[in-house]
Amino acid sequence: MKIIQPLEIGKYYHIYNRGINSDILFKESSNYEHFLRLYDTHIDPIAETFAWCLMKNHFHFLVRIKDNEEITTEKKIPPSQSFSNLFNAYTKAFNKSYNRHGALFERPFKRKEINYDNYFQNTIVYIHNNPVNHTICEHPLEYPWSSYISSISDKPTNLQRKEVIKIFGDIDNFKYAHQLKRSDSSIETFLGI
């Protein structure tokens, strides 16, 4: 049995998961919106978000687990529990809406520590290009359920936009990196996807 490492304070992770048997997680816009509201409630207090993408049957997040003094919840719970609380809250709402019961997400949720600048940058591009790689659209700008648009926007966001753009040097390099045709096999191999 593979031992799942707990999420550690101050570390960066690619968090990803899918529906059980690759079942659909998001059937309509209101599902995506509700999941993101729950994410704000459960994850923003304990983690900084650098990239995200919600697909019909899976999702990706690139986060840094905050240091103890940065965590804004009164009750300190393990970061992994905050993610579990998110998934459980969404599952309850989804099950109620669609008259279903039982688990919705695979368990345990996947996590990969990201500790190399190159992989950090590549993971952001990989996450944003997920809808492109799944032939849903031709450019991440066309997909509404990822952080790509927030990354290049001036609108208020909880996304760590300044840090993301800084990693690429500037916004032009950020956009350029997302346009490059690349094989995602190396990042998928690293991430174990």
UniProtKB/TrEMBL annotation:
Transposase IS200-like domain mapped to chain residues: 8-130
Gene3D superfamilies the record matches: Transposase IS200-like
Name of the featured protein: Transposase
Domain of life: Bacteria
